[in-house]
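Dig into these lines:

——
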Amino acid sequence: MNKENLDILLKEFQNISKDLEKEESICAHLVKPLDTVLLVMPQDIQAPKGRLILPQVQTIRDLLDNKCVVISTSFEQFDQALEALTKAPNLIITDSQLFAKVFPKKPKNSLLTSFSVLFSKYKGDIEEFIRGSQKLDSLDENSKVLIAEACAHKPLKEDIGRVKLPRLLRKKIHPDLKIDIVSGNDFPKDLSHYDVIIHCGACMFNKKHVMSRVEQAINQKIPITNYGIAIAKLNGILEYIDY
């Protein structure tokens, strides 16, 4: 390798380093140093034995980087966790599927969000996802929804994307609502026969990949939203969720 090529290679490495330095924080827009943050993380069948799922790990690390005091609990110990604190937590981050249970119990002055909502901003276009969620209000039994998962894991009992979210959609909209589910890279090129797309938090994708799907939906004039935002919308609490 000659000196000219070496200089080009070093410059590319410097550009990559700058991009990494500019990487957004997951939580910095909602917290400040020494804030107390309570994480509500269900330990159900979807939780891998002996470890946390990736969005939880990344969020905890981000909060620690932002000099926050981080406390974790499952929902069953949520009341006890609040009682153990001398003051209300500045922020509560819950699994989206627990929005309906956590919201009525949260202290008045505590902000509330979810891992999925945080990742909708971190990995995608949250304003577009908020706009897309409005389409849920006009769906009926003739509508068709696309649920898109980033990872191609083996479906589990009570899986959020394949079981719980479809169940909630059919409960809130209509039992005969048509729902297609895709995973991994099986995202259809033609979205025209869908009324709305609901995407997961995409912890396994980078932002560029997620935004390519958002842009595809926008170009085809199909509303797109995110698991957490859709769940908050369906439960009637989206306006109270912080993002």
